[in-house]
Amino acid sequence: MALHDKRISRRGLMAGAGAVAAAAATLGPASVFGPTRAFAAEGRLIPAGKLGTITFTQRDVPGRVGIAASAALGVPPTMGYVGGPNFPEDPTDFGPLVPLPGGWAELFDFLAACGFKQIEFAGYGQNAANPGGAAPNPAPGGVTTPASRAAYLAYGRTLRGFLDAYGLEAIGNHGFIPNTWNGPNSPGGAMSVNDYERFQTELEFASILGMPYMGTGNDPTSANNRNIEPWTIAGEKWEALNQLSLAWGIHLYPHNHSPAYNFLQDGPMVTVTQDRLTGAPIAPTVVRGESGKRLMQHYLDITSPDLCVVEMDIFWAHVAEHQHRWRYDWEGNRVEDIFDPLATVAMQTMRYALFHAKDGDSTGEPPGVGNGYNMIPFGDPRSDIDFGTFFKNMGARGYHNPNYEQDNAPGGSADPGQSLRFSKFSAAGMANLRG
């Protein structure tokens, strides 16, 4: 069987999803989900079919009671502002106060109208009152049973129907990654039965959704430990897990924040006499020397490119450029060595299959102090991250899968429509990126 044969085709699923799609298509007033203006395809750095978002950005939406569910329950819907007829070209045009979407079907309706095509899930749960109901637990008490598996996969088919109804594709997720694997450094030397059954269930769920990738929101191993040894073991683990996942045609991926681009501790113990950040004299201190290789680079160097890909958060990669600028070499000298996010991707571009397209405004903090950036909507005029140069020069144009993310997008009870407005604004910003 070819590696992709287990993945369920859209054509094969549509017959069973027709009723779900028809129901989903009736949700919400069209005026709430009005599309943003169209953009010409020529010169786009992010093709229309690759315009994605991770639902962590809109995490407030699935959890609230939506428009259709509010009507069915006879309760007032949540009201907010999603942008008027001139938004996002005029970001001050908030538009009228309208009922806000809730649950997956209504969120997908809104995101598709914004121009998004790909969805990266940050969990599958939603408010139980919304169409499709609550997400079943695939492994109650850590044990996957025939009944829990069947209920979970049925829910996956419901989500697939919602995606298909609005012409969306599932590109990946941040979800379950086993703690055990088949390898000499795994606890017990093999994957546990419970991990295996849960892992296979999650892979089948992802296959139902049509995902080519399945991931986690974390590094391959904890970046709090910068020693080379645990990162080498992590390579063994992720190769072993990918060998299992590729039977479903699915690559697994870790996700990187700034600590993953700190310096690998791979040298001898050395004595240092300068502060790493300031260069000021310090009492002689013994540390492990650093060759200059970054943690994530070691992971990529020791894993097969046919098996292992990663997702870079572009915002956090620029934070790493701001933060991790000095290292102690194998002689104990303090050496300036600045991280370059673009060069890192360009030299191995096919390994970076996914991105979080997260924009940032410089804080003006001195190098090495703080994060250096605040999160803002993608394409905000305050941006100090050069996405045009990044996407133009990283190579393999059209291959990568950038997903808009903004951790601070939800506006809470004071502005419950904010994450939706920011999503509409950012979809336009990504579509407008030219080069």
Summarize this, please?
By secondary structure, the protein is of the alpha/beta class.
The mean pLDDT is: 92
What's the total helix number?
11
Q: How many beta-strand elements? A: 17
CATH C-level class: Alpha Beta
Rg over alpha carbons = 23 Å
Largest sheet properties: 7 strands, parallel
Distance between the termini: 41 Å
Helix % is 25-40%
* Strands ordered across the widest β-sheet: 5-4-1-17-14-11-8
Tell me the overall shape: globular
What is the level-2 CATH architecture name? Alpha-Beta Barrel
Total number of domains:
1
Low-confidence regions: 1-41
Quote the CATH topology. Answer: TIM Barrel
Notes on the protein architecture:
The protein has a 7-stranded parallel sheet. Strands 2-3 form a two-stranded antiparallel sheet. It has a two-stranded parallel sheet with strand order 6-7. It has one domain (10-37, 47-264, 346-362, 374-432): Alpha-Beta Barrel (TIM Barrel). The protein is globular. The chain is 31% helix and 15% strand. The protein has 435 residues and is an alpha/beta fold. Helix 1 (10-24) crosses helix 4 (146-165), helix 4 (146-165) packs parallel to helix 5 and helix 6 crosses helix 7.
